[in-house]
Structures are given as structure tokens and as C-alpha cells.
Specification:
three-stranded antiparallel beta sheet; disordered N terminus; 22 helices; DNA-directed DNA polymerase family A palm domain-containing protein; single chain
């Protein structure tokens, strides 16, 4: 059936409009793209224990309908699902978001009642813990799952309550609107349909090979096959990154669709987070477009060179290799130290092996960093650097998108199709200089 343009305008809401939908390939395909917001991941046994062992009067303080009260508790627990894959099991949760997730039609604050239920728990213990060091107005309150539920693992749960599903739909589209208004996020959304992901089975084979070859992560951890062993099997477990755990994280990030990319607040300088920034780098390397792997375009020692610009340093085109050669510190150790050096408290910076280098070659810059940290707190340096980094990457991505080129963003690096590499590289090298940062892409 052929439709004229006026047929598209004639939607009335009548059931007859479904005839148009079913017979138009493009519209029919679009109807498959709505998010499944009723699917969440929760700790195993959490639903059973809430239903069987939690006080019914306590649950009714959340909602008179026990089923709805339980599902609101499960949505709260879902907020902590990502901590299964992080070293730090504590997670800050905004009271504003918690209220938005759980409020009733009359806008009643419910989330505090949910916290009461989950911290009280059952006769065998609580579901969550609350960080007692929380200070009003300083930061969002932190929560963690208790060990019982951390050890249990995650399981999918399908929400049934229409009201909760509608609330989650609103939140989803709100986040999507915010993402589309951000140049980095909208670029990522345009990039996602082109991406082909490896299977978990393929990743396991690749991971085994990389572990055998002695691959290390960017933080210097040794890629290791767990082979069903528990952490205590390794004396240096904190220095290892496990292939199987990495694959579980990959499945968490991509198994039910990609995260909506989200820009952070001023603390992170507006850095964007999505399924791919959070993905282990060796897995991200396996992403393909039309069977071809992406090429990474990465600035050389970007943050040290941003710091030099921000604090009127005298060094130019600084690289990790230059510092390694002048100090005798191994190149890999220089890279790892630079990941945290400028974010450290001043006393910790002094203890870093990099401090002597900067003290010798750019002591005036160090003095200005000291005064800034002393006046505004030790995180001010990294906050400023992240802000500059995001401004640079935003300008690069805007220019590339205007040329019809879309890229994967990983903070200070971009992953692109090989056919676009030359233009991406030239653009990154040009724009970094326009921002006054004297560095360029790694060769």
C-alpha cells in the first residue's frame, strides 16, 4: 500500500491508524524501539525476603498495597546493582532522584520509608547499609548492599505496577531529552546503531589469550582468568582484573540495551558516562563497524598538559616518556601515577614519585596548584581539568558531526571508523591548540 504525505498527517487516535502503522515499514520498525523500562536487575532472594520476612505494617508505610511497596523497594535496590562491578561498594544516591522514583500521586516523600524498611530488613539482617558520615548539604547520602545480598548476585525482575512503569518511562524520556541536548551524548546515540558487539563466548576466548600474553589494564592490573577461584586464591588479588568478571560487567552494560549517555555535574566537569566509557578497555577494543575494529585517537598526556595551561606552567608538549627518561621511573608507572596525581591531596602529591620532577622543572606551577587546593579543596584541580577536557572534546565532536562523522567517546579519547581516522586526527590536533593546550595525538 502506498501512502501520500497527507495520510501521515491524518493520525486521529482511532484504531484504524494501526493499519497505517502495520503497512509502513519505517513506522513499524520504529515501534520496536521503545525501552523496556519494567525490566530491572535486583539481588537474588531480595524479592522473596521482602515478601515473606519483612514486617507487613512497615511495608504499608510505603504503600497500602503490599505488592507496590515491595516493587518500590526493589527499584531502590536496583540503583545499587552497578556496585556488583565496582571496587567501592558504596554509592551516592540523590534524594531528588529517589523521590522522583518513588513518590505517590500527591507527591508524598516515600523514599525515606523505603530506606527504613531496607535498613531494618529481616530477622537475618538488613538489605542495605547507610553511610553514617553523611553531612547535610555536602554530598548525597551513600548506600551499600549488605554482604548477604552482594554475594547473592543479580537476577532480572519484571515490574508489574503500572504507576511505577509510568514513572520510569517519564524518567527515561527525561534522560533521553537531556542526552539529545548534549553534543557528546547526541553523537553517541547516533553512533550506537552502527556498532557490532562481540559475544560473551568470543570475549572469553580473547580474554584467555590476552591473559596468557600478560596483558595489563590502564591502571596496571594483571588480566587474569579466574577459573572459578575465589579472591583469596591470589595473594595479590587487588592487583588483578579478572576476565570473567569483566565479561559479566560487559553483559550488565549491554545485555538489555545501552545506557542513555549522561553528562556529569561540575564535580566531573561534565564528563559523559555511557555503556562504553564504563566498559573494560580490552573489551571495548573488540567493537566493530561492518566487521572492522575501531581506531583509538588519544591525546598524549592530556591532563598534565591541561594542568600546565591552567596553572601557567612553563613546560610544553609534555609526555609520559619525557618524564620517564628524566626521572628513571618506568614509563608504565608514570602513566599510572598521572591518573591520580593532580586529584590528590597536597600531602599525597608530595609522596608521589612524580612530585620531584614537577618540583624541579615547574615549581611555580606546583605552588599555584597548592594555593588553589588549599583555598578550594584538593579536588578543584581535577574538576577544572575535566571541564577543559570536556570543552575540547565537545568542540571536536561538533565539528566531526557537522562533517557527518560520528565517534565513540571515551573521556579524552575518540574511537572512529578507520576511513575517518585522518580527519578525526587532524581535527583533534587543531582544536587542542585552539584551546591553548600544547600537546597532540599519540603517534
Amino acid at each position: 500500500m502506498n501512502f501520500k504525505n497527507e495520510d501521515y498527517i491524518a493520525f486521529t487516535g482511532d484504531t484504524g491508524d494501526f493499519d497505517l502503522l502495520q503497512n509502513d515499514y519505517k513506522l513499524s520498525e520504529s515501534a520496536l524501539r521503545f525501552p523496556n523500562v519494567n525490566s530491572i536487575l535486583i539481588p537474588k532472594k531480595a524479592q522473596y525476603n521482602l515478601r515473606k520476612h519483612v514486617s507487613k505494617p512497615m511495608l504499608r508505610t510505603i504503600d497500602t498495597n503490599i505488592d507496590i511497596a515491595i516493587e518500590k523497594c526493589l527499584v531502590f535496590l536496583y540503583n545499587l546493582a552497578s556496585t556488583y562491578y565496582t571496587d567501592d561498594k558504596w554509592k551516592s544516591l540523590s534524594s531528588k532522584i529517589l523521590h522522583q522514583q518513588s513518590r505517590n500521586a500527591d507527591n508524598t516523600y516515600i523514599y525515606t520509608k523505603i530506606i527504613d524498611v531496607l535498613t531494618t530488613g529481616t530477622s537475618t539482617g538488613a538489605f542495605i547499609e547507610v553511610d553514617s558520615s553523611y553531612q547535610v548539604g555536602m554530598q548525597s547520602k551513600k548506600f551499600r548492599l549488605t554482604d548477604t545480598y552482594l554475594k547473592a548476585g543479580l537476577v532480572e525482575y519484571i515490574i508489574n505496577d503500572v504507576g511505577i512503569i509510568r514513572t520510569r518511562n517519564k524518567i527515561y524520556y527525561q534522560q533521553l531529552c537531556e542526552a539529545m541536548a548534549n553534543p557528546i551524548c547526541s553523537n553517541l546515540i547516533a553512533m550506537y546503531p552502527k556498532i557490532d558487539l562481540p559475544t560473551s563466548e568470543e570475549l572469553l576466548s580473547i580474554g584467555k589469550l590476552l591473559a596468557k600474553e600478560g596483558r595489563t589494564t590502564k591502571k596496571g592490573k594483571i588480566l587474569t582468568m579466574r577459573n572459578k577461584h575465589k579472591d583469596h586464591y591470589w595473594l595479590d588479588v587487588k592487583n588483578r582484573s579478572f576476565v570473567e568478571d569483566n565479561i559479566e560487567l560487559f553483559e550488565f552494560l549491554t545485555g538489555r540495551g545501552f545506557m542513555i549517555p549522561s553528562a556529569g555535574d561540575f564535580h566531573s566537569g561534565g564528563r559523559v558516562v555511557d555503556s562504553f566509557t564504563l566498559m573494560p578497555s580490552w573489551i571495548r577494543e573488540q567493537i566493530t563497524i561492518e566487521g572492522k575494529k575501531l581506531i583509538e585517537c588519544d591525546y598524549s598526556a592530556l591532563h598534565p598538559n591541561i594542568a600546565i595551561n591552567l596553572y601557567d606552567g612553563s613546560l610544553t608538549y609534555l609526555t609520559h616518556q619525557i618524564i620517564a627518561e628524566r626521572t628513571g621511573i618506568h614509563f608504565d608507572n608514570v602513566k599510572i601515577e598521572h591518573l591520580s596525581f593532580f586529584n590528590m591531596k597536597w600531602n599525597d602529591m608530595i609522596k608521589s614519585p612524580l612530585f620531584d620532577y614537577y618540583s624541579r622543572y615547574d615549581s611555580d606551577m606546583l605552588a599555584r596548584i597548592y594555593h588553589d587546593k588549599n583555598e578550594h579543596g584538593h579536588k578543584i584541580t581535577s574538576q577544572k581539568m575535566f571541564g577543559v577536557e570536556v570543552a575540547i572534546m565537545t568542540d571536536v565532536i561538533r565539528y566531526l558531526n557537522d562533517k557527518g562523522i560520528f565517534v565513540l567517546y571515551v573521556y579524552d579519547a575518540l574511537l572512529c571508523d578507520s576511513k575517518d581516522f585522518d580527519l578525526v586526527a587532524k581535527t583533534m590536533n587543531r582544536i587542542i591548540l585552539e584551546h591553548g593546550i600544547r600537546t597532540n595525538l599519540k603517534t
